[in-house]
Amino acid sequence: MPDIAQSPQPKILVLATLAGGYAGADSTGQSHLDYPANTYVLPVMCPVMFPPEFFVRAFERGIDGIIIMYSGTDSPYKVEADGTAKLINRTYQLMKERGIDIRRLRLAAICTVCVKPFLKEVNQMAELLKGIGFVKNELASRNASAQGAPA
Amino acid sequence: MPDNDKLKIAVYTCYCGGNISDVVDCEKVAKAMGSQPDVVVSRTDMSLCSDAGQSQIEQDIRELGVNRVVIGSCAPTLHEVTFRNALIRAGLNPYLYQHVGLREQDSWVHSNDHAGATRKAMHLMKAGIAKARLLHPLEPIRLQAEKQALVIGGGVAGLRAALDIAQQGLRVVLVEKSPFVGGRMAQLEAVFPTHENARDLLRGLIKKVVNHPGIKIYTQAEVMGVAGYVGNYCAQVIQHSRGVTEENAEALLSACQQEVPDEFNYGLTRRKTIYRPYPGCYPPLPAVDWDNYQGEPISLNGGEPIVLEDVPTSVDVNVGAIVVATGFDPYEPRQGEYGYGELKEVVTLPQLIRHLALSKANHALEWNGHPVRDVAFIHCVGSREIEGVDEPHEDGRINNYCSRVCCTATLHTTEELRQHFPGLNIYDLYQDIRTYGRGHEDYYRDALLGGVRFVRYHGEEHPQVTAASAGDTHPVLIRVKDSLTYNEELEIPVDLVVLAVGMQPRQIDKLVNMLKVSRGTDRFLLEVHPKLRPVETAVNGVVLAGTAQGPMNIQESLSAASAAAAKVVALLGRGRVELQPFVAAVDAEKCNGTGACVEICEYEGAIAVQTFTENGKEVKRAVVTPANCSGCGACVAVCPNHAINVQGWTLSQYEAMVDAIASDIPNMAEVA
Amino acid sequence: MKDLKVDALVVGGGIAGMQAALDLGDQGFQVALVEREPSIGGKMITLSKVFPTLDCCSCITTPKMSAVAHHPNIKLLTYCEVESIQENEKGFAVATVQKPRYVDEATCTGCRLCEYACPITVPSSFDRGLGSYRAIRVPFSTAVPQIAVLDMDNCILCGKCEKACPVDAVVLSQQPEPFTIHATAIILATGFELNELGAKKEYGAAKLPNVIDPLMMERFLSPTGPYGRVLRPGDGMEPTTIAYVQCAGSRDKTLGIEYCSRVCCMYAIKQAMLISGALPMAEITIYYMDIRTFGKGYEQFYQNAKAMGVEFVRGKVASIHEDEKHNPIVKMELTEEGRIIERTHDLVVLSLGMIPAVSSSGFGLVPASDGFISVPAPNASPTVTERPGIFVTGTAGGPMDIVDSIVTAGSAASEASAYIRSKTMIAESQSEVAYA
Ligand SMILES: Cc1cc2nc3c(=O)[nH]c(=O)nc-3n(C[C@H](O)[C@H](O)[C@H](O)COP(=O)(O)OP(=O)(O)OC[C@H]3O[C@@H](n4cnc5c(N)ncnc54)[C@H](O)[C@@H]3O)c2cc1C
Ligand SMILES: Cc1cc2nc3c(=O)[nH]c(=O)nc-3n(C[C@H](O)[C@H](O)[C@H](O)COP(=O)(O)OP(=O)(O)OC[C@H]3O[C@@H](n4cnc5c(N)ncnc54)[C@H](O)[C@@H]3O)c2cc1C
Ligand code: SF4
Ligand code: SF4
């Protein structure tokens, strides 16, 4: 019997707005459509609250991919559309500095009935991670190369 | 409860009557959670939302001194409030509760991967526990609420909602875009199922509304902006000039020369640009149609020609809640759809109803000056469209819903026709007859007995409507496969084709954006939950009435309007509302008043840096005004001191959740 | 039982009555909710999942039941029967009887030890006779209130429950207790019953074991049901071909039920979808005249069922008989082809129509032509009956689904609250006059 405790697959974290992605994830559930179980959706009010360091920290702790599912211009928050885009750019900057593949972080506008787009995002990230593997390995090889490099 | 009390967490994993437990091994999850630090009890339940389930939670709080509760069950939208209330009953602050969605986001989407789903449940629950450790008691924000409501739309639904709200002692502002109230119902004649005259019925309702001292009506008015929040919305209402006065109205009306198609008669007739749609309308004063009146001078009794001018006025109204009752438009068939727009013998049902009203006195039915001997009705025009069969509309959508009213409206109309014009041959081309309501089936039966010829077509294969060849007895030929007669190909020559068009929502994009309400795939306004909260939207304090939400007949629109009114009264009746406490909060210890938060914040009056004198020293610190704070958290990301957080959704809580998801579940070997 | 004075009395604790009580209670009115069964919840709590969202029905109903029970303005009175309604200048005086539970409501904790001790097993009405329960029992697992009730008709007075009860709540000497509820307004939410399985003689007259009613199918499909799976009541076999006969007892002049029952098309499609989930190999056929999926999202639901492979066959079923293995044989005319065919199925569900649960005359009302409570002005006041102060909601006023029941509950609550306010205002102005 397989040990269900240990996750054999990379972990995907979805930060989904209550007004958008989280409701979209619920709609997907109501439609009983399957997607990979290594996906963890956490509700957020609005993604602008996260500083770039938050994401880098998450990768360093072992989250392999993060999708921000926000409500885009349909958001109840004025700042969400622009603010999130800016946040992503700053985070990509920081990820590059830390040697993390920026494809591990994605932004998608998902509404309450966006069942197909939700599935597409999740499946794409899962596919990507199959290709680029665990973030742990990426960080380890980065550290290794950093140490190996001449001072 | 003091914060430094020892943490005692209770964890519950709900079976959801099999919905979760068929896929997730709830017992294993519960067992694994039982060994998490600070967890004093971890249980499963068949249905935690049941009275027994809730009592169990209360009992654990009381008897085990539980001070944090984590529940894995259905989506939080369904039962978060239910469980918070259970905490309140047991004397615990309701915000010491963490909800984990294990159904919509786990068992229902990983039905082929039981082990994966179980593992995911463990991680999600562990994350819930991690957040629960960092929860603090919160108090809802209590605000005074305006005891006044805004009703947008003055059709039968809006009028009824306004009346019901006012009758409970609240004030109402009713905003109607057109110059007259009554909406689409005013364009009907005898209505099913009672055969009463629609305008007589409306008049009774309008009289009550107009006479109610608590209701203020603005016609030719629109809501241009909405600010604020439940209990305290401020709406900007722009009202156009009437253009005429009591004194000059009749003279202007007769002097006005310019004519445009009359939308009251769906373009069958023309009217002046100063007009009354029908005798007995409300308000009785004629109005200028500013969209079409282009400043032409009008001569009164040979005097100086005058030019009428629209001077819109703006008022701000403060309301606690908003009822959206913007109604429907009949579906406008595309050019060429069943010959519409190409053959003049093809009309819509609403047009036919107006035509009959206009030609009431006639003994024979005529169309276009020709007698009508044979007429065919086609059902489901612009409704029940099928993906892959029917062409998408301009916005790429398919009207795949049933418009619910058209079957009965059609059969009701055939009854009127049979009574007035006994010799008329009537064909009825349908897919399914949906005469569902009280008395509706009688129309169907009477039509069958009364000689209406029913032809059943399939949605995949529409009837073809073409011009007849020259010399034919009738101007139009319909070809259709009739599944009632073993799919026989019929050719039906007719004088008139009536399209039973469906309903679609009005163009209200601006309003939708302003109010931040959602629409469904059918483009009608969306309720939070069709069963639990059928007339409320996801925006607190905004409710729906009538056909803005979906097709309904008059009776159903009235019920929905009254139900919406009941929600408004429950919300505002006491003069105060409670808001969720999820707003920014400043940690006074860490804040040194840098003001980065104030700079980034986009909400008027939500946050400001103030100077305090403490121990003789001047200190600067950010201060939040909760009622104006949206809780977006833009300030959280920019604070250099990590001194600000959204209550109930703090960064450290997220970090703890991320760690839980990233980690492995300890002691799994023994559990699994 | 003490007499009670409230603003509004709601009769019937199904979804419509519960919602009406909540809507009034939330507006600050004092409400009494009288239910004749030992638990509230009505038909809805017995359903499996509900169309069109396929939510777990219990997940939607139980919180409402619980909200009613916990509401500070609602007094819940279960296992009570309304005897008569008298009118006086203050409103209504409603003679009500508390039926004996033979269990003390205040002391019973719902621990079910009595149930485990009881030696008598009777068919469970909650499970529509498919499962069984004891002569003394908590009515069902999610019942509100969680209080045991003893069914004296089946009790042999062995006294085992009395001994088993840890709090001495069993009181075999209880008697019916009459009391009066004084109310300004009344909302009737007495609901519906399914027409009898045997009502149409041609459809087997309730004598064929594998022809069942749709509420039985709900219990088969429900996670709280007696078997937790779908089977043939005749022999316990798993059915592989299942048929639904639509309009079985609705739209049928011979039965005097000419109206459409509105929900049977949708529940048949819903059940067909749920069965194909539970028994992926099963072939499901729906025999129909018209498919009436007119509600919001319902047409899409119907199209989904078609896409899932549920077979829809148009035609009027003439009769049902069975073969020697008790397999029901459906005889019908196929309208699309004009032939008469016979098809054998393992299980047939009759999509029975709705009939009123009570006679309107008991409330001093003249029933509508369909037998349900009438509303004289549907296009003006859809929930107002002919008797001032008495309102109607849900299926008591005619067939409808849950959404419509909830909406009409809001409407009835609005009408009732306006009525109560106008009455109290008159009363207040009169007392001012008297004072002057
Ligand atoms: C052909 C046909 C026949 C029918 N026959 C019957 C029948 O016999 N019996 C029956 O019961 N039902 C019948 N109906 C249904 C009936 O017409 C509707 O149920 C009813 O009119 C719906 O009322 P409403 O208030 O929801 O919408 P509407 O009547 O559309 O009213 C909406 C109002 O809102 C206003 N509005 C729109 N947008 C704005 C805005 N942005 N700001 C301010 N105001 C705005 C509009 O001007 C309008 O006055 C029929 C429908 C059709 C199409
Ligand atoms: C097989 C089947 C499946 C269905 N599936 C769905 C579905 O999936 N989705 C959906 O929306 N709808 C569905 N429905 C319809 C749904 O069941 C009804 O719309 C709903 O239950 C009606 O609720 P109600 O409160 O009006 O009536 P009821 O549920 O009948 O409640 C009436 C209550 O009043 C009580 N009562 C009666 N008389 C008295 C009296 N004199 N004194 C005191 N109390 C009294 C009764 O005991 C009962 O508790 C289904 C119906 C059937 C038959
Ligand atoms: S009510 Fe009748 S005509 Fe209208 S869309 Fe539905 S089935 Fe078609
Ligand atoms: S809902 Fe469908 S099955 Fe039921 S009576 Fe109406 S048409 Fe017949």
Could you explain the architecture of this structure?
The complex is a heterotrimer of chains A (151), B (672) and C (436). Chain A has helices spanning 21-30, 52-61, 80-98, 115-132, 135-148, and strands at 12-17, 39-44, 65-70, 105-109. Chain A is α/β, with parallel strands linked by helices and 151 residues long. Chain A has one domain (12-146): Rossmann fold (3-Layer(aba) Sandwich). A 4-stranded parallel β-sheet of chain A has the order 2-1-3-4, with helices on both faces. In chain A, helix 1 (21-30) packs across helix 4 (115-132) and helix 2 (52-61) packs across helix 3 (80-98). The termini of chain A are far apart. Chain B has 672 residues and is of the alpha/beta class. Chain B contains 17 helices and 38 strands. In chain B, strands 10-7-6-20-33 form a 5-stranded parallel β-sheet. Chain B has a 5-stranded parallel β-sheet with strand order 22-31-25-26-27. In chain B, strands 2-1-3-4 form a 4-stranded parallel β-sheet, with helices on both faces. The longest helix of chain B has 20 residues, at 114-133. The radius of gyration of chain B is 31 Å and the shape is globular. Chain B starts with 8 loop residues before the first strand and ends with a helix. Chain C folds into 3 domains: 1-99 and 176-191 and 357-436, FAD/NAD(P)-binding domain (3-Layer(bba) Sandwich), CATH 3.50.50.60; 104-171, Alpha-Beta Plaits (2-Layer Sandwich); 196-353, FAD/NAD(P)-binding domain. In chain C, the strands form 6 sheets. In chain C, strands 1, 2, 5, 6, 7, 12 and 22 form a 7-stranded mixed β-sheet that branches. Chain C has a 7-stranded mixed β-sheet with strand order 14-20-15-16-17-18-19. Chain C has a two-stranded antiparallel sheet with strand order 3-4. In chain C, helix 6 packs parallel to helix 7. Chains in contact: A-B, B-C. Chains B and C meet through helix 2, helix 3, helix 7, helix 11 and helix 13 of B and strand 4, helix 2, helix 7 and helix 8 of C. The complex binds flavin-adenine dinucleotide (2 copies) and iron/sulfur cluster (2 copies). The site of one iron/sulfur cluster has 13 residues of chain B, from strand 25 and helix 10.
